[in-house]
């Protein structure tokens, strides 16, 4: 008996194929979404990392303490201000208006702006990059936002510390913000379109210090004058009693040791000397040419407070106006900050003065401190004009220029009006040389630092 075999169909039905395709499509969709989200998260992390590098390049790490002080370093520590474009972190040069990033556009603006090619203390680049500073992608965010100057980051500057008033004028800047506009390159948004960071402000409180009320100990020179001339020996209170014993050798008409201030016979003989009637002069024969000449006592202004007081005269002590000034370099002709003037008595004693009226806060970093006469950055206090030539009218011209003359070898003029009055060659200029008696003090400002009393 023949039994018939029924062939069975091998394969998938249409329904089965449709089910498989639906499953594969669902899996592909999930994988694609996951891959896309993973890529976006990577770009977001790159943005965060580059922002932190930019911020550290500007102010260091103020949240990290080193020896009890915040680690303020990098750009603001070197320059004493924030960068006026992120490009300045990589190469020197800035425009007085933060809208311009190169010299040509800066000076070609209407009205023309000022381009500064070098900044004192710049020690960059402050970020290591593989690209050149003029590449728009040099330090762009993770989303590929690019532009010249700030490399696609949104950088804003403010004339207040709270980020309330926008400015593009570098002289007015007190705070700045750096922010990425996210995936959509548009302000606002959610998810990966959100701007980063949400609080982008970098305020002057991150890099500056209150330098008001700094106390400085100053040792003044002994400067003053007596109301009248006095004797070098204060026991003699009149010019005659002071100078009567001074001797001089003369050779005409005959050799003799004489007393020029004993001008009559009574005075001469009353002091125990011999009166030469023929020559009408007071003589002493015990002295020869080798030992006659002698100024026993002198009658003049000895600039000695002790002699003046013992002689019954009035000693006048002058005063001077001084201020505390800060410079980025001792040779600078302008302060970056200074106090109000304070009065100091020039009596040769030590005085401690607390200087106030300082514009605060001031940038962290290395600065030079000095005490200056009349808040003139070119006239360090205790600098003197030295009669180095010497000049015949030095004393007269010193007074004409408001200075105080001190006789000596050489002569000096204190408190002269300005540098040119000392070094100039046209009278009443002094034709002298300026001599600094002190050097500016270099130190580093750091937030929350406590100032010791500074010895000047």
Features:
456 residues
Task: Write a brief caption for the model.
By secondary structure, this protein is α+β, with helices and mostly antiparallel strands.
What can you see in these coordinates?
The chain is an alpha+beta fold. The chain folds into 3 domains: 56-206, no CATH class; 214-226 and 313-455; 232-310, no CATH class. It contains 8 helices and 29 strands. The strands form 11 sheets. Strands 18, 19, 20, 23 and 28 form a 5-stranded antiparallel beta sheet that branches. The protein has a 4-stranded antiparallel beta sheet with strand order 25-26-24-27. A 3-stranded antiparallel beta sheet has the order 5-6-7, with no helix packed on it. The longest helix is centred in the first third of the chain and has 46 residues, at 14-59. The model has no long low-confidence stretch (mean pLDDT 83).
């Amino acid at each position: 008996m023949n039994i018939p075999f029924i062939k069975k169909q091998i394969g998938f039905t249409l329904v089965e194929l449709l089910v498989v395709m639906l499953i594969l499509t669902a899996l592909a969709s999930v994988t694609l979404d996951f891959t896309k989200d993973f890529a976006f998260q990577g770009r977001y992390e790159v943005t965060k990392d580059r922002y932190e590098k930019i911020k550290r390049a500007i102010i260091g790490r103020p949240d990290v303490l080193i020896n009890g002080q915040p680690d303020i370093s990098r750009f603001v520590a070197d320059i004493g201000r924030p960068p006026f474009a992120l490009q300045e972190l990589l190469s020197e040069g800035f425009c007085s208006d933060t809208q311009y990033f190169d010299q040509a556009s800066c000076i070609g603006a209407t009205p023309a702006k000022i381009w500064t090619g070098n900044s004192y203390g710049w020690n960059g680049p402050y970020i290591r990059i593989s690209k050149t500073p003029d590449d728009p992608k040099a330090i762009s965010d993770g989303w590929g936002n690019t532009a010249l100057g700030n490399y696609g980051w949104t950088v804003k500057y403010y004339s207040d510390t709270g980020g309330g008033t926008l400015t593009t004028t570098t002289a007015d800047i007190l705070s700045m913000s750096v922010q990425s506009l996210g995936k959509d390159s548009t302000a606002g948004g959610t998810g990966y379109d959100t701007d980063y960071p949400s609080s982008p402000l970098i305020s002057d409180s991150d890099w500056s210090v209150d330098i008001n009320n700094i106390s400085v100990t100053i040792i003044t020179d002994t400067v003053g004058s007596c109301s009248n001339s006095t004797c070098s020996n204060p026991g003699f209170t009149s010019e005659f009693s002071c100078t009567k014993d001074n001797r001089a050798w003369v050779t005409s008409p005959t050799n003799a040791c004489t007393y020029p201030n004993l001008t009559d016979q009574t005075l001469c003989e009353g002091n125990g000397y011999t009166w030469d009637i023929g020559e009408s002069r007071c003589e002493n024969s015990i002295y020869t040419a080798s030992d006659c000449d002698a100024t026993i006592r002198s009658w003049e202004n000895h600039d000695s407070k002790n002699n003046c007081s013992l002689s019954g005269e009035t000693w006048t002590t002058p005063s001077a106006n001084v201020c505390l000034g800060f410079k980025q370099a001792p040779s600078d002709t302008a302060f970056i900050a200074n106090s109000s003037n304070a009065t100091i008595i020039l009596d040769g004693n030590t005085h401690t003065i607390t200087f106030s009226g300082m514009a605060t806060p001031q940038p962290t970093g290395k600065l030079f401190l000095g005490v200056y006469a009349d808040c003139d950055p070119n006239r360090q206090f205790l600098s003197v004009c030295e009669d180095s030539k010497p000049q015949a009218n030095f004393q007269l011209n010193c007074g004409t220029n408001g200075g105080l003359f001190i006789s000596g070898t050489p002569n000096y003029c204190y408190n002269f009006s300005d540098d040119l009055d000392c070094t100039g060659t046209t009278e009443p200029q002094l034709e002298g040389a300026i001599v600094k008696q002190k050097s500016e003090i270099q130190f580093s400002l750091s937030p929350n630092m406590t100032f010791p009393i500074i010895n000047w």
